[in-house]
Amino acid sequence: MSKFRKLFKNKARRNHYIVGMVILIATAFSFILFLQRFAYISMSKQYDGVNLEQRTKQKYEHVNKVNAKRGDIMDVNGDMIAGDSTIYNIYAIVSKKSKTTTGKADYVVDREKTARILSKYLPLSAKELRKFLTPENKKQYQVEFGPSGRGLSIEIKRKIAAQKLPGIHFVELPSRSYPNGIFATNLVGFTKADDANDANSNISGVMGIEKYFNKLLAGRDGKKITKVDNSGNELPDSQVIEKSSADGSNIYLTLNSKIQQYTEILAQDIDEKYAPKGLQILVMNAKTGAIEAATQRPTFNPTTKKGLNNSWRDTLVEDQFEPGSVMKILTLSASIDSGNYNPDELYKSGTVEVGGRTIGDWNTAGWGYIPLSEAFTRSSNVGMVKLEEQMGSKTWLEYMKRFHIGEKTGIDLPGEVAGNISYEHVSDQAMTSFGQSVNVNTMQMLQAFSAIANGGKMIKPQIVQKVVNPNTGKTTKSFKREVVSQPIKASTAKQVQKAMRQVVTKNYGTGMVYNVPGVKVGVKTGTAQIASPAGGYLTGSNNYIFSVVGMIPYDDPNYIVYVTMKQPQKMTEAPEKILSEVFNPLVKRLVNQGKSPTKSTEAGSQYVSIPSLLDKSTKDSLTQIKNLNLQSGVIGTGNKVVQQLPASGEKVMPDQRIVLLTNGAMTMPDLSGWSKNDVLKFAEITGKQVTTKGDGYVVKQSVESGQVINGSGKIIVTLKNK
């Protein structure tokens, strides 16, 4: 028995020993694993895929982004074109659980009252607003008001906030201000927020100068880091680490606001009267290449984005087209410069066969046998073909390349197209002499025309005058006159200038309508066919690109004016007459710059700068408008102005109409005698759906004057020419 006990005791002791060793080994192994893991975490600073250092920083450090101010875009005189701004989105809390810090209700208490008051400031009726404020989901915490509640100005935000409506709140968002409204919009461009609902979101350029110089304009954001406790409270005397922001550069363009504003007025008038599918107006300083005015139609409002869907690009550089007869300026230049021009040689006008194709003059019957000196003045296609044949296709192609046809100008705008020359067939070679079978962009043609204005030296078009660093005040880039090349001799340029003058002065010239009394203008007209998607060219009297280019004055040009108009849908006048409605008054304005405004009789004297009428009494506002030689239109029965169009700071010609929205019930004004542009202002400021019929001035309206128009549905307005 004792032997058995002894054996059991020894066995138990051995088992204890084994268990002890196992525990010891396991403990040692675990400790080694722990040390390895600890060493790994210490060195890598990661655990289970989580960066511990970053997580600690996130917990005990608070990082605030410091937004850089986006640089301003200004005209040649430093007048603002685009600058930083703030817009507001409005929302309403509808959950009754929401309270203020003092325990008061922070939700919409009275839906009827709230809807009624908001309808005075938002383009929504009280009925529509009540629907927003009564969501189907009873558990919904807050509501927004769709597009009508976004992008509110500071003036409207202040007016609504002053009403102290419970539950009404605003989100402040970075934005971009374009105080001139439609002002070289497609060239200047616009911006959009990277996140439309984030107050710290950056905004980026989408088009034009805003896009091309986005990095320079945007600057560099900074940040501010502070130490916080577990609850997120900033620790007293905690170290603050700051990375300063650098504001974006300011860009000064070569645009002249006075010329640009007048150009916009002329363009809008043509757009309304003749509805072209495309319109371009450019003014370039002939000596320096500076673009002093540039606009296009269709265009859009950079603030409201109205019209953007139909105008997504800058056609001045992004569209290519056949230039038509203005190309004859280059053909004549090449013929003279190459020594092949014989002005007294007779040729048979009308039609000519080239490479199996019949090429005709615009007057297909022709003028019989006429000298080559009349070919340019009459804009004879057959005459230009004759010049091309005499030069030879190789020489003519060489001159087109000297004028950089088919090459980008390199102007500081995004998306420029190079164009191309179709030169494979003999007929194509001949057609390039009068502007077909060759594609160009507008700036490219302006550059080529500059050689005629500058003694044969071709000047690059420029849109940027200088770039200024706002942090140092130093100019980092300057506009300089840049001679691209000299494609022709000075003597050649002089002969072409005289030929352009004859287009205006000769009784057989195609540009007689562009004669401006007292101004020595030289021009070349153009009518370019438009290629059909089915092949060949479109037919019909309006399916052309009509154009005119002018040198002012012809013998020593200070300006080059180039106007193109594509497919006018209401061609109630001859195309030359339509273009003269832009060209002639614009030439007068350019020549009269700096002179006494009383000497100018074209479309009024000087611009009127629109004052701010917000918060002013309706009566005082109407008096002020009358004193400014402007017309007025009042919407509503209130005694105080809450909105106005045009906005304050915009510039208009005398006799234009300011439309006012008052704080009373939104009632229909008497639109009799209003222009279509005035009706569009009415539609924009009220947010109502307005359909116009006809052209001219209002003679009839579907909603009677004085009737409340909230919830009135579509409004039909009939216009008639006087």
Distance between the termini: 137 Å
- Average pLDDT for all residues: 87
Number of helices: 20
Number of β-strand runs: 35
| Rounded Rg | 36 Å
**Low-confidence runs (pLDDT<50, min 5 residues)?**
594-605
Structural class: alpha+beta
- Fraction of residues in β-strands: 15-25%
How can the largest sheet be summarized?
7 strands, mixed
Shape: globular
Helix content: 25-40%
Produce a short descriptive summary.
30% of the residues lie in helices and 23% in strands. The chain is built from 20 helices and 35 strands.
Description:
It is a single chain. With 722 residues, the chain is α+β, with helices and mostly antiparallel strands. The chain has 20 helices and 35 strands. Strand 1 and strand 2 form a beta hairpin. It is globular, with a radius of gyration of 36 Å. The chain starts with a helix and ends with a strand.
Short key terms for the protein model shown above:
20 helices, 5-stranded antiparallel sheet, globular, 722 residues, alpha+beta
